[in-house]
Amino acid sequence: MKTLNSVPSTVATVLGVAAALVIAFGHLGPVGSALVTSLATALGTLLVVIIGAVNGKPVSLQVLTGAAMVIFSDLALFGIRMSADERGALAAAVGVFAGLALHLLHVTVTAAPAPPHRAERS
Predict the structure, then answer these.
(1) Which ranges in 2-83 belong to alpha helices (H)?
(2) C-alpha to C-alpha distance for 27 and 29, rounded to whole angstroms
(3) Which helix (H) or strand (E) segment is 60 a member of?
(4) Distance, CA of 5 to CA of 28 (rounded, Å)
(5) What is the 3-state secondary structure (H, E, C) of 36-57?
(6) Which helix (H) or strand (E) holds 109?
(7) What residues does each domain of the chain span?
(8) Separation CA 34–CA 74 (nearest Å)
(9) CA separation, residue 79 to residues 29, 42, 63, 93 (Å)
(10) pLDDT of residue 66
């Protein structure tokens, strides 16, 4: 019996196979193929983050926001185009609402480590 811990790799594999099939049989150009590939990767990332959060793992808000923004950018594949200002507003909204939701669900949120200060480098 598979445990929930083995699901992220399965999710990533299934999304990769689905993206490969869409690219192979969808008669997409290079741009469409790139959008499908990055959309599958971003969806896989979000699913892995969600599965990890369900299992009590800490969640990186930067990874969550980044994956969401890739998905918003890839909506161009479906004819939905956004300006830089609209994408910036969405990034801020996703960060705020995801952070609030994770806080209310008592999920640990991690941040990317800050680079060391110049004086500390040797």
Answers:
(1) 7-25, 30-54, 61-74
(2) 7
(3) strand 59-60
(4) 34
(5) HHHHHHHHHHHHHHHHHHHCCC
(6) strand 109-110
(7) 4-106
(8) 9
(9) 15, 18, 25, 22
(10) 84
Tokens 């890839």 -> residue: 74
| Single-letter amino acid, residue 80 | I
pLDDT tens-digit profile of 65-116?
888 888 888 787 778 888 888 888 988 898 888 888 888 888 888 766 656 6
Q: What is the pLDDT of residues 15-66, one digit of tens each?
A: 778 888 888 888 888 888 888 888 888 888 888 888 878 888 888 888 888 8
Q: What is the pTM of this model?
A: 0.68
Token code pair at residue 6: 């083995």
